[in-house]
Amino acid sequence: METPYLLKQPVFRDNRGLFAPIKLNNTWVQSNISTNSSPYTFRGMHIQSDPKQQSKLISAIQGRIVDIVIDLRKDSKTYKKLDSFILEEGDSIYVPKGYAHGFLTLTPNALVNYLVDEEYSPENEIGILWSSIPGMKSIIDRFCFTNIDYDIVFSDKDKQGINLNEIL
């Protein structure tokens, strides 16, 4: 069974900025870009249900993020395990189908690219309320030395996700 893993891609820097090529294969059908002007912007936790589940390749194009995943595959040895990865410019993480995913920006103007192997399907999208996930607050607290409810930027949609227990 697949698990998430960090990819260190080559990053080429010069006076203009950086160039970070990402190897692709025939798997990826859509590329998504996320711009995040404020540090401590949280996006997640999201997953698509069958038959539109997605594997993702998440890449930090600009800035630094903490990428967070939780395994929701009931037949997995790591079922309900929460994990986090620091991504800096040029780093990527592979997230297999069956994982809910989200990230927290650590720098202003973070730019994140997601490659997915299934197109976005609003009908199959599930948003999980971050505060319903055991261990999530401690992961966020490691990076934000502030009051979590005040300083972190959440979308209205992400504030109203379903409770994790409702989908387990």
Describe the structure.
The structure is a single chain. The protein has 168 residues and is mainly beta. It has helices at residues 136-143, 148-151, 156-159; strands spanning 5-8, 12-14, 17-19, 30-36, 42-48, 56-62, 65-71, 82-87, 91-95, 99-105, 110-116, 125-127. The strands form three sheets. Strands 1-9-6-11-4 form a five-stranded antiparallel β-sheet, with no helix packed on it. β2 and β3 (17-19) form a beta hairpin. The longest helix is centred in the C-terminal third of the chain and has 8 residues, at 136-143. The chain starts with a strand and ends in a 9-residue tail after the last helix.
Q: Helix and strand succession?
A: EEEEEEEEEEEEHHH
Which percent range fits the helix content?
under 10%
> For the residues shown, what is the average pLDDT?
90
Radius of gyration from the alpha-carbon trace, in angstroms: 15 Å
Report the β-strand fraction as a percent range: 35-45%
Poorly predicted sequence stretches spanning 5 or more consecutive residues:
none
Spatial order of strands in the largest sheet: 1-9-6-11-4
Could you give the distance between the termini? 19 Å
Backbone shape: globular
Helix count equals 3
Number of strands: 12
Strand count, sense and barrel status of the largest sheet are: 5 strands, antiparallel
Class inferred from helices and paired strands = mainly beta
